[in-house]
Amino acid sequence: MKISTGSWSRRILEITRGEFANDILKQANSKFGLFPNSEFICMDLFLSFGDISNIRSVNSRTIFNETINTKNQIDELLNTLKGHDKVRIWTSTAKTEDYLNMMFVVDLIKSANIEIEISIVDSVNVPVSDRYPETAAWELACLEIDGIKKLLAFEEAVSDEKVNEISQSWRDIVTINSSLRICNDGVIKSVDDNYFDQMILDTINESDTTQKAEVIGATMARCNHADGNLIDLFFADRLEKLIK
Length: 244
Fold this sequence. Notes:
The chain is of the alpha/beta class. It is built from eight helices and eleven strands. It has a five-stranded mixed beta sheet, sandwiched between helices. 33% of the residues are buried.
C-alpha cells in the first residue's frame, strides 16, 4: 500500500458498483466539489451469481440472459489505476454485489502488485435519508446526494494486513465457487441457487396474488435485507424455474 504524500497533488480513483452509484458521486461532486482530484469508474460484474472460478480470464459471462463484458471492465480498471495515488472503493456490507465488488478490486490490486493507497467507504454508516433516520443506506445508489457528504466522513484506510485478509477471503470464495453468494453484515455466505426457493413458495402460498411481479416484490420484502439485497432478476429467474 502506498503511503500518502499530501492531498493537493494526489490523484484519486473513485470506484463504484453500477452506473447509478457512479452518477450519485458525480452529482455530489458537482454540487459540493467533494472530489476535485478524482476520476470515476464503475464496475458491475454480477459476482453474486454463477461460476466465478475464471472471472479474470474469460471475455464475458452471461447472467440472467445479460452479457457481462468482464474482460473489458477489468482491463479498463487496471489501465485506469495507473497514474493514481489512491483508490477509494464505495461499498456496502448490506449489498452483496457491492461488497463482492470491493473484495474483487482489492484482490486484483494485490495480485497485480499495484502500489496504491486503498480506502473503503461503507454506505450503511449513514441513513438512507433524513426522512428515514433509522434505515441504513443499503447501497450507495439509494442515497440522496446530500448523504454522500455525510458518508465521506466514514472513509476508512485499508492497511496492508487488511488487504491480505480481504484478498484471502475473496480467494476462498472463488475456491468454493458456489452458484450463489449472499452477504449479511459483511460476511459472505456461499449457498446453492435454490437457497430462497422455499421462501418464494411460502410467499406464493400465503399470497392472494398470482402476478409474478407482486410475488417477487413480496419475497424480497420478506427477506428483509437478509439476502444481501439481491437484484429482482435473481428472484424472477428462480420463480420461473419453480413454476415450470
